[in-house]
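agent: user wants the structure for Cu-processing system ATP-binding protein from Thioalbus denitrificans. delegating to structure tool.
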Amino acid sequence: MPVPVKLENLHKRYGRVQALDGVSLSAREGEVLGLLGHNGAGKTTIMKLVLGLTRPDSGRVEVLGRDPCGRDVRRLRHRLGYLPESVVFYGELTGREVLRYFARLKGIGRGASEPLLERLGLAQAADRPVKGYSNGMRQRLGLAQALLGEPALLLLDEPTAGLDPDATRDVYSMLDELRRRGATVMLSSHVLAGIERHIDRAAIIGAGRLLVSGNLEELGRRAGLGVTIRAGGDWADEKRVDRVIERGAVVHRRSATELELRVPGAAKLDVLRVLLAVDGIRDVAVEPPSLEMLYDHFGPSTRPAEAPCTAS
Ligand SMILES: Nc1ncnc2c1ncn2[C@@H]1O[C@H](COP(=O)(O)OP(=O)(O)OP(=O)(O)O)[C@@H](O)[C@H]1O
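agent: tool returned. relaying tokens verbatim.
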């Protein structure tokens, strides 16, 4: 079984802009890979290269074992689903008509639209013109068209851009469902908050370069950022707090009933033991570094020598 996406040393220039500068990256079967980076980092360019919508100046692109710009790309494209960053539909058509139109373009029977309308919660609105849809509904329709034909690889470019918190949650819960079904997904985002629970690996892109990639646990270990421990209890007594500080914890936030600590990985168990022995401890939660913390560490301001690239 070929690796779904294999990118080797990609360079791509648009006029004077070096959009990609030696990116090597893979998406593995059945994983959700998050392409994360600032505006203009090169995320969409990577997606366009995977889709065969543009060619690299140099380097190699292999998608499901094929060159997406090679011969017989029609068969390959039928196995890909794509949700572009700004999805636009012809507003006079109904949701059902839009989906049937895309199904015809993909050479799929019109029957394929019905289960997708149902699955994406659009069945009730299927006969309404799309111009009356909310942003969230449009995005769900965009996802439905990307899912037509059960693609082997899904590319979602900023799928939550411009959505309110409810619609964002909807998109993520659909993503989780795809993940449970074993889909391979490449998802780009410049918004980091809340995305970590929905991806298996992150690739942080900055100014056309892959700064780092890996699963969040790995990245947390490499960054040496330790963990955050939140402990609910009675923290009015200074001595109780001093005991965890002695074990290497740094107090990040504190009230009489809540304590938030940053703890180096090596000190985690020691600090937990101390906390659990405290009288009146109510609750303890251990959290790995957030994506924002990892991005701050590995992100574009970090010199490449401090953040080695991995071509995984
Ligand atoms: N067709 C084009 N013509 C000229 N420059 C382009 C073109 N497409 C992309 N660029 C430039 O290449 C760089 C990378 O763009 P790209 O769209 O890949 O970034 P991105 O990470 O997807 O950004 P965003 O988060 O804003 O969507 C940017 O500087 C962009 O302006």
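agent: one observation worth passing along. The first strand starts at residue 5 and ends at 14.
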